[in-house]
Design a protein that fits this description.
- It is built from eight helices and 18 strands.
- The protein has 319 residues and is α/β, with parallel strands linked by helices.
- Helix 5 links the parallel strand 10 and strand 11.
- The longest helix has 14 residues.
- It is globular, with a radius of gyration of 20 Å.
- The two termini are 17 Å apart.
- 38% of the residues are buried.
Length: 319
């Protein structure tokens, strides 16, 4: 996957603890085009890589825009973005990838953002304004001051299409969403991004009326529950490289392979980004990621080797 060098052209405060970073190609290079919902890897400091959604206008080929919330429990990524990255600095990023695409031909797009979850949905909303497709964007946040891009989304382009909701308790959100989601207009699709509890609440409220394939989710991080549970040892066999290696209870496939000189490209190492996806030739994976859809997991022909394991005693990987 290609890496790109960009220059940080502008940094702006967009809300309390949220900053946007405008990235332009460095040294005369150009930026690959991207579709709404795409994200990029960003390397804000040595040894740190994080995924951020592109929230600018996908038609603007000359720059990428990302927005980062400074997390109190930062593992280093958001703190590095807020404290170390400065205007004029060069940054290494990855090419855009999209696990959260708008559905072509949908009759209506309902976009629901919790907090900083606005970022991929803003790119979608910009696109939908440009194409004139039917959409509604709902932004849930703690307060006006915590709402990133509020001025933009209050402008004429978005009139009648954006709703802001502040400081609601979960019961209030649930009651509001029940009314909103109790009928799914034919051909409509629902897109969610936000903190895990918020997404869980919206997804559960939509479930009685919105079919799973009409609901699209973009997670920031894996659910700890998906990474827990029994982790019995198993054996991986590498079809092309050769060799069989035991993956003990407390180790991951990528750790064991790295120890044996087999490097698999990774990024998030949390089952979120899909960088480490590897073909499965035999055996049944124990999918622990949030990258694949349920249907893709059932196909059992690919797996994320950073977090996923084996249901049986042995897996044969296309490595
Ligand atoms: S490295 Fe991101 S899913 Fe495995």
């Amino acid at each position: 996957m290609g890496e790109l060098t960009v220059t940080v052209a502008a940094i702006r405060d967009e809300a309390i603890d949220v900053r946007s970073f405008e990235l332009r190609p460095a040294r005369g290079a150009s930026l690959p085009p991207y579709a709404p919902g795409s994200h990029i890897d960003v390397h804000p400091a040595p040894g740190i890589v994080r995924q951020y959604s592109l929230c600018g206008d996908p038609r603007d080929a000359g720059r990428y825009l990302i927005a980062v919330k400074r997390e109190a429990a930062s593992r280093g990524g958001s703190a590095a973005m807020h404290e170390r990255v400065r205007e004029g600095q060069e940054l290494t990023i990855g090419a855009p990838r999209n696990n959260f695409a708008l559905v072509a031909g949908a009759s209506h797009h309902l976009l629901v953002a919790g907090g900083i979850g606005i970022t991929p949905l803003l790119g979608m909303a910009r696109h939908l304004v440009a194409t004139g497709e039917s959409f509604q964007l709902l932004c849930f946040s703690r307060s006006i001051a915590h709402t990133a891009f509020r001025d933009l989304l209050s402008g004429d382009d978005y009139r009648g299409k954006v709703g802001f909701h502040y400081a609601l308790e979960p019961d209030q959100v649930r009651a509001y969403l029940r009314k909103l989601l109790w009928i799914r207009p034919a051909g409509a699709h629902l897109y969610l991004c936000g903190p895990r509890p918020f997404m869980d609440l919206v997804e559960a409220t939509a479930a009685p009326t919105w079919a799973p394939d009409a609901v699209h989710l973009e997670y920031f991080a894996a659910d700890p529950a998906s990474l827990s549970g029994p982790r019995p040892a198993f054996v991986v066999k590498l079809a092309r490289h050769g060799g069989e290696f035991e993956v003990p209870e407390g180790r991951s496939i990528i750790e064991v392979l790295a120890e044996n000189g087999v490097t698999v490209e990774t990024s998030c190492e949390q089952g979120v980004c899909g960088t480490c996806v590897t073909g499965v030739l035999e055996g049944e994976p124990d999918h622990r990621d949030i990258f694949f859809t349920d249907a893709e997991k059932r196909a059992n022909d690919r797996m994320t080797v950073c977090v996923s394991r084996a249901k049986g005693a042995r897996l044969v990987l296309d490595l």
